[in-house]
Specification:
The protein has 146 residues and is α+β, with helices and mostly antiparallel strands.
Length: 146
């Protein structure tokens, strides 16, 4: 038991610099902040029309799309290369409009818009409430048996 305490204290005092990290090393000369990361679970929408600084797209049954959400425009012909970053500014019925906030190349109608779905709070999650109910049931059964 003493060996565990000594090892824990050594890690806390010496830091964890010698432990391997899960992140791959960045390429030489490239910092991690310059590498754009588009979430893999972002929803993909077709762009209907493009104006000077806005794009209109159909949201259909995606009721969670609302103003303020971050979105990305990608080019499917170039393996989803990043074209622009946008923010959803309005929604009316089955269509929404997004404003360009950062642009690599010009946005075209044959590009796709990726919108990141917002994360719901933990207390609205079905997983949380099912776990809470299972824990409560296990506690009641345990108290009744013992």
């Amino acid at each position: 038991m003493r060996a565990v305490w000594v090892a824990t204290a050594a890690l806390m005092v010496g830091g964890c610099q010698s432990l391997p990290t899960w992140r791959p090393a960045a390429a030489p000369g490239v910092t991690a902040s310059r590498l754009p990361r588009i979430p893999r679970d972002a929803a993909r929408f077709e762009i209907d029309s493009v104006n000077d600084s806005t794009a209109t797209f159909r949201v259909r049954e995606a009721t969670w799309v609302r103003p303020g959400l971050q979105s990305y425009v990608v080019d499917p012909a170039q393996r989803d290369a990043l074209v622009a970053r946008m923010v959803v500014v309005s929604r009316s019925g089955e269509s929404a409009t997004a404003l360009v906030t950062g642009q690599v190349t010009s946005v075209k109608a044959d590009h796709f818009l990726l919108v990141v779905r917002p994360v719901s709070p933990w207390w609205k999650s079905a997983r949380f409430w099912s776990g809470a109910a299972a824990g409560a049931a296990a506690t009641m059964i345990g108290r009744a048996l013992f």
